[in-house]
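Reviewers of the previous submission asked for a worked example of the structure-prediction workflow described in the proposal, so we include one complete record here. The input consisted solely of the amino acid sequence. No template or homolog information was supplied to the procedure at any stage.
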Amino acid sequence: MYKFISSSSKSKLIPHLSNSILYKSAYSSNLVSNSRNEISKFFHKPKNGNGSWILWGQSGFRSYCSESDRETMNYDVVIVGAGPAGLSAAIKLKQLCQQKEVDLSVCVVEKGAEVGAHILSGNVFEPRALDELVPHWKEKEAPIDVPVTSDNFWLLTENRAFSLPSPFDNKGNYVISLSQLVRWLGQKAEELGVEIYPGFAASEILCNEHNEVTGIATNDMGVAKDGSRKENYQRGVWEIDADKHQPGYVLHTLGWPLDQKTYGGSFFYHMKDRQVAVGLVVALDYQNPFLNPYEEYQRFKRHPAIRPLLEGGTVLQYGARSLNEGGFQSIPYPVFPGGAIIGCSAGFLNVPKIKGTHTAMKSGMLAAESAFSMLQEGLKMENYWDNLRSSWIWEELYTARNYRPAFEYGLYPGLALSAVEHYILKGRSPVTLNHGKPDHEATREAQLFSQIEYPKPDGVVSFDVPTSLYRSNTNHDHDQPSHLHLKDPTVPEIVNLPKYAGPEARYCPARVYEYIPDETGDLKLQINAQNCLHCKACSIKDPKQNIEWTVPEGGGGPGYTIMFLRSYFILDPKRCLIVNIFENEKVKKG
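From that input alone, the workflow returned the following structure tokens.
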């Protein structure tokens, strides 16, 4: 286990879990066991574990954590999570260092085995923030070279597709692999002197005696299931037929296979090299406990208008994840004692655009500027909040604030209200709509619904979970403690199974949770933690919030390279989340 701390002369700390920045005091070698309880008083870790935090500490105070024998690495700034926001913050900090002739050591800690390995997103990329961060990105060979050539929007019924006016306005945008873009950003950061450490999962936040965050610690590696120390202990894209491939072709759909009370839709993004990213969005505030997002996606691909686009192709990758998508209504005050929130953690996704990378990157840049001013000029980190509200992020999310809540009234009322917002009011409505209840509270009892009979996979366009899981390149050391914990082990059998028909087995896209009969024939919940795709939907959708998702050993989990495809949105009144499930197809050579 390693303890990453910052050692700047002014001893300011910025940690950032899952794309986060840390500044920490040099006086941090003395540790005690109460850091987790102390830090929880000040902020709540996003349930999906994604996004960015910036934290800072004060000199002269000790950092506390649960053990004192950890190896310590000192940096001025530590960024936890090599995502778009975190890497943008790292790059911006180093750029400011060059401009002001200041030397700050910057480190990025990433739980994936390599940068980009846990980045999963269907992405039509708006380069606005990148234009500001790296103005000559084209000359620097950024993996952004497929401009959007057409923008289509369909309403699906069970057997037909109706074309609607496209509201997305993707002129000037690009179809990209976010995983590849993040790898490129990582290279640019290293060229500027940023140190990146993949395979390190930040599991503990360190704070001083004043309850101010001062650093992070990584989890133990080489721990067996029984808790003993092992010898190594230490502190979907599709390939489709060439004649079907249209680089830059973008398609979004609404409607079938989802019912009219469940928000969601699909996307088709034609990338380069005959690759197509396909995905389904399913709001996790769905009511029917028998709904299975994975099976809904398999059913979607059988639609008469969709199946011909995929037949003859080959699935290359599959995956799933969660993202915050609460938008303007869900943005929290991002500065707290010892830190600040950036990126997806703050819910900067623009839902009607279906884009959040550009806003996440911009938030990281703004936070980096505020942190630099705090370290070098003694200004307050609260400037980040002021700069955020005066930036184009705030204006963009404000004008888009009512689109997602409009669908609380159903599919067709949502379409009508969205049309009024987009074409008539243009985001200037005098009313701000609110989100509904949290996702886990939206689930209704099974007795109110009938089971959904999903078709069996045909092995052509639809597939079973084990086949898809294999395509995610997911890998965990089987001999380690489970990173999935039940707060009350009796809840699955006493509550979830009789009342909700065991929804864990359906909302998880990787068959991590299964009800298996014991020797007496009674069903018991079995957790297959090695299957986990790190989507974290379980900690969000579980009706009793009984599942706690923690980080496994660093380097474990999926291994995405070009990934993006299927996705579900997860809604919470204060923090809405999105889960992406993706496949990649590549065009078959003619």
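The mean pLDDT is 80. We consider this example representative of the routine output the project will generate in years two and three.
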